[in-house]
Amino acid sequence: MPKLIIDGAEIEVEDGITLIQACEEAGVEIPRFCYHERLSVAGNCRMCLVEVAGMPKPIASCALGVNDLRPGPNGEPPEIITKSKTVKKAREGVMEFLLINHPLDCPICDQGGECDLQDQAMAYGVDGSRFKENKRAVEDKYIGPLIKTIMNRCIHCTRCVRFMTEVAGVEELGMAGRGEDVEITTYLEQGMMSEMSGNVIDLCPVGALTSKPYAFAARPWELRKTESIDVMDAMGANIRVDTRGREVMRILPRNHDEINEEWISDKSRFIWDGLRTQRLDQPYVRVRGKLRTATWDEAFAAIARKLNRAKGSRIAALAGDLAGAEEMFALKDLMTRLGSPNIDCRQDGAAIDPAKGRGGYLFNSGLGGIDTADALLLIGCNPRTEATVLNARIRRRWSSGQLKVGLIGPEADLSYRYDYIGAGPQSLADVASGKHPFAKVLKSAKRPMLILGAAALAHSGGGAVMAHAARLADMTGMAGEAWNGFNVLHHAASRVAGLDMGVLPAKGGLDTQAILKAAKAGKLDVVYLLGADEIDMASLGNAFVIYQGTHGDAGAHRADVILPGAAYTEKSAIYVNTEGRPQMTDRAIFPPGDAREDWAIIRALSAVLGKTLDWDALSEVRDAIFAAHPHLAMIDEVVGDGGFDLKKLARGSARIGKQPFGRAVDDFYLSNPIARASAVMGELSAMTAGGTSGATGTDG
Amino acid sequence: MSVRRLDPIQPESFKFSAANMRWAKAQVKKYPKGKQASAVIPLLWRAQEQHDGWLPEPALRVVAEMLDMAPIRVYEVATFYTMFNLSPVGKNFVQLCGTTPCWLRGADDLKAVCRRVIGEQNQVTEDGMLSWLEVECLGACTNAPMVQINKDYFEDLTAENFEELLTDLREGRDVKPGPQNGRQFSCPEGGATTLLNATASSSAKRSTKSTAKAKPGRGGK
Q1: Which of A181, A198, A180, A205 lies closest to A143 in space, CA to CA?
Q2: Most exposed among A377, A605, A693, B180, judged by the fewest C-beta atoms under 10 Å?
Q3: Is the bond into A107 cis (omega within 30 degrees of 0)?
């Protein structure tokens, strides 16, 4: 624990940190461009110069460790001065150099108002320029459909290059040339093939890399910022939704060390154009085969005609992947009152039995647990597409050399190396029985971990897969008191809340597959789809389909009545992430047109049906939820595993299918109704499917 | 110096010759396992030698693949080092030193000759025999002004003998590398000026030996 004197105040800091971190701890602000706490140190912008007593020149504080400082002649702690004349002059000098080739185009720059260079030039620069010569000009580069480049503005901090290489694990950006002719580019100006590339927009301290879809759309000071939660996957990344008037203008990440750190995937970031298109903004009723617009009363009346005549056992409901806890709770309540046991929140038919303990379907180690794990077995799971930011965390641990990864399932480029064990459940059985050498790796590891993906649980032999995984976990001592490495990685944001609240078939009820089968056979009269689009609509047969959702997607096309709901940016709803951490979205804008918040729609419908639900306000729904499931009230806290018992989980069919695991996400960019409505996602999907668009064509 | 980009006209593919491939594999073996990327500069250099003195884009990919590097990392190296030519060069590639000592001794005259005889920098003559590039100090200041043509130094140039030299090269005549004014390496012009009496000191023999300037090595293609 070295002692330092920073601007006259003595402070004791951790071993191994750098001067800039020490200064931060002491509450002294150090300007910087290239330094970023989650990236390697480059030390090339020179903005963080400080004076160290006894050193002849100012020192780049980001690149010098506190342990490398020597005490004074009489043993006094090393002294760092950040407010001296020398430091001021040094900063002014560096700033002047940085601005030599930086265009003065702030008025037309999208970074204006949230630009590090702008702010720091104000704070640490001088008021005029002595530079009379021509500024250099740099050609703009094509690096993909998401990122607009204005390379004149680049100050070569290389944050983007380091991010893509170190965090995203996609070595595509680089710094070409030298000296004055240095340029940031991709190889032959191909688009970047990464699901995290949007983060370089946030990292860029100037306006060289800005958001292409958001270009010239708004100024930061005219946006209303709403802190919310992302629902594109089950990680529950923390986001900030920026809105102007009735439109979402952009989505940015918020820092949450346990979940997404400060990154989000491109899908989470650029989904917002999908929130504007293909929206269901008024109710529809199918009349003589054609969907016609209707009033709420007409739509409810049409539903009431069907539901009042249908027997409870001939009614079924499915909750989709983006549904919040409130509406699932309301739907379950309504179904109970209608006397129907047929309800399921597992749209993909995942074999999860909450009766075996909550830990049986949670990411028990916590997403942060990866940072200490030393062996990892991925089962039917591609974290890169199912939880992109989590994949970056695995990659970081892997690149530290302390994590060995094995994969069972479809082979994929995960951005790190892994031992490929096999394609199907048979390989899992081999590891579980100790036949495969990876079993030894898990056994000898101190903190072994397995991640059971959505595709493994949705497998036809999902129950057996779960049992084998539990057996393997038990055998390798994964789940102990201090460490529980038995993890399930969900892909649907709604899933854990649904399982927690028991949005599952009641006694004698039908699950997803059974509902689809029964509907096809004509054994169901009414099917209620709460934003459920990822099922085979053809198997709904002749049933009367009520679709409550946000987008004109598969469900709406099949529906007989459409009830327009609110998307995740338009309502306050609870989502429980794959760790079992409840988080709440906030309403950033109102739903479009006649669309309403989903719980309110179900409440209104219940009144029309004469089965009025007990509550009539969001706070009352929440009270009802919290009364029944107290842990959902603990926002942002992970509580307990609910009597998790590996032995119980391990019981179950030993017969395991031969069919290889599928993919939980076929197309990363088109995995939900909002994404399918987004033009940006469509372009990205086409780009990944058809190679690189916009490349120069010399790529072999 | 200007922005260095890959040539717009690129060959379809690039392949190391069998001999160069053997050599390249031996180079890679020099480095510890996992550090094979260290061989990137030697491999690029050999690729350039094999490919008429310039690096085509497919060669970058070939080297990247051999060394398990991302192509962008190889591209960074190739664009950083100015001795990697990214566009075709003449059969005789003239690198003209324009740094202070050569400049003081008349490098500008040589440049004028280049412009007149060859054309602008980086332009290859129509017959493909010549192209030129101004470079930084080549370390033969004693014999300024000088140029490097392919692997040989031509020193103590004047506008006249330089033009003659270029004509000879263009017409495929044999030329003599080294000083062009009859001087021996970097010995004083017109013969020795000191130590004229060999018997005066027994150390004379040693010192004359050490004044011999090392000639740049002759490597095969």
Answers
A1: A198
A2: A693
A3: no
Task: Closest CB to A181: pick one of B1, B72, B75.
Answer: B1
Closest approach of chain A CAs to the CA of B190, in angstroms?
42
Q: What is the pLDDT of residues B94-149, one digit of tens each?
A: 999 999 999 999 999 999 999 999 999 999 999 999 999 999 999 999 999 999 99
* Beta strand pairing call for B92-97 and B130-135: parallel
Distances from the Cα of B42 to the Cαs of A571, B11, B74, B106, in angstroms?
61, 21, 12, 34
Nearest CA in chain A to B1: A181
Residue in A76, A14, A23 with CA at minimum distance from that of residue A50: A23
Spans of chain A below 70 pLDDT? 642-643, 654, 691-700
Q: What is the pLDDT of residue A700?
A: 35
- Confidence check: pLDDT of B17 > 60: yes
Chain B residues whose CB is inside 8 A of the A162 CB are none
Domain boundaries along the sequence of chain B: 18-80, 92-179
According to the model, what pLDDT value does residue B200 have?
A: 62
Is A176 within 8 Å of B76 when comparing Cβ atoms?
Answer: yes
pLDDT for the residue A633: 95
CB contact under 8 A, B79 and A178: yes
For residue range A215-240, list pLDDT tens digits in order: 999 999 999 999 999 999 999 999 99
Query: CA-based angle A615:A621:A624, to the nearest 5?
Result: 95
CB contact under 8 A, B58 and A174: no
Q: Which residues of B touch A174 (CB under 8 A)?
A: 70, 72-73, 75-76
Per CB-CB distance under 8 Å, the chain A contacts of B59 are none
Query: What CATH superfamily classification does B18-80 receive?
Result: NADH-quinone oxidoreductase subunit E (1.10.10.1590)
Does the CA dihedral B158-B163-B167-B169 come out positive or negative? positive
A536 is written with which tokens? 């085979």
Question: How many CB pairs below 8 A link A and B?
Answer: 45
Q: pTM of this prediction? A: 0.92
Task: Select from A161, A181, A187 the residue whose CB has the most chain B CBs within 10 Å, as the one to mutate to test that interface.
Answer: A187
Q: What is the CATH number of domain B92-179?
A: 3.40.30.10
Smallest CA–CA distance, residue B56 to chain A, in Å, is 11
* CB–CB contact A171 B1 (8 Å): no
What are A590-623's pLDDT values in tens digits? 999 999 999 999 999 999 999 999 999 999 999 9
Report the C-alpha gap between A468 and A455 in whole angstroms. 15
